[in-house]
Design goal:
about 180 residues; 8-stranded mixed sheet; about 15% helix; binds 8-OXO-2'-deoxyguanosine-5'-triphosphate; NUDIX_hydrolase-like_dom_sf; nucleus; EC 3.6.1.56; 8-oxo-7,8-dihydroguanosine triphosphate pyrophosphatase activity
């Protein structure tokens, strides 16, 4: 069990004991213009989907460090302030390892947006997200972001990694355990 995992704080005894692989997911916001930067994933897991910027947390870094690193690698932006806004847990059919995704909003950042090998960045209106080209769960929890609510979402998926068979999504006062 990864000691950085926060899954044991989630009241779900069936899943607390599972191994959790840690990921980050960062959404740079342009609040003045109500825009968010997404990237079209060009390869690998989630190919051809728009998403925030993130990936696996490496063994030698904290989750927040991983979030900053993945953002700069995939978008060119260096976050100067980030807020942890959500926690997503994905359980795939026939997979003993759950995905634990730490979601952040980047309110300020430096640098220039660049296309990377992995992502083609594009700004979107926060009220007009390309959900048909995003992961199926994203349209469920994005409204929490719009309302400024922190959230925890647990999603159970079929082995096709797309079909949600069950979900438990709720607002939390704090993600202080993260
Ligand atoms: N919005 C959203 N993001 C998701 C979902 N599922 C999921 O893994 N992600 C995110 C978490 C990570 O940011 C990203 C997956 O990480 P990755 O496989 O690209 O990780 P990586 O860059 O380290 O991988 P690699 O290709 O370099 O080996 O996708 C989902 O359902 N919705």
């Amino acid at each position: 069990m990864d000691s950085r995992s926060v899954a044991h704080h989630i009241e779900d005894s069936d899943h607390q004991a599972m191994a959790h692989r840690l990921y980050t997911l960062v959404f740079p916001l342009d609040s003045d213009n109500n825009r968010v930067l997404l990237g079209l994933k060009k390869r690998g897991f989630g190919c051809n989907k728009f998403n925030g910027f993130g990936g696996k947390v490496e063994a030698t870094e904290t989750i927040a460090e991983g979030a900053v690193r993945e953002l700069v690698e995939e978008s060119g932006l260096v976050a100067t302030s980030m807020q942890n806004c959500g926690l997503l847990l994905f359980y795939f059919e026939n997979d003993p390892v759950a995905m634990e995704v730490h979601v952040y909003l980047a309110h300020t950042y430096e640098g220039t947006v660049i296309e990377s090998d992995e992502m083609r960045p594009q700004w979107f209106d926060i009220h007009d997200m390309p959900f048909s080209q995003m992961w199926a769960d994203d349209s469920r929890w994005w409204p929490f972001v719009l309302r400024g609510e922190k959230f925890v979402g647990q999603f159970w998926l079929k082995a096709d990694q797309a079909t949600i068979t069950r979900e438990h999504l709720y607002a939390v006062e704090s993600l202080g355990f993260v």
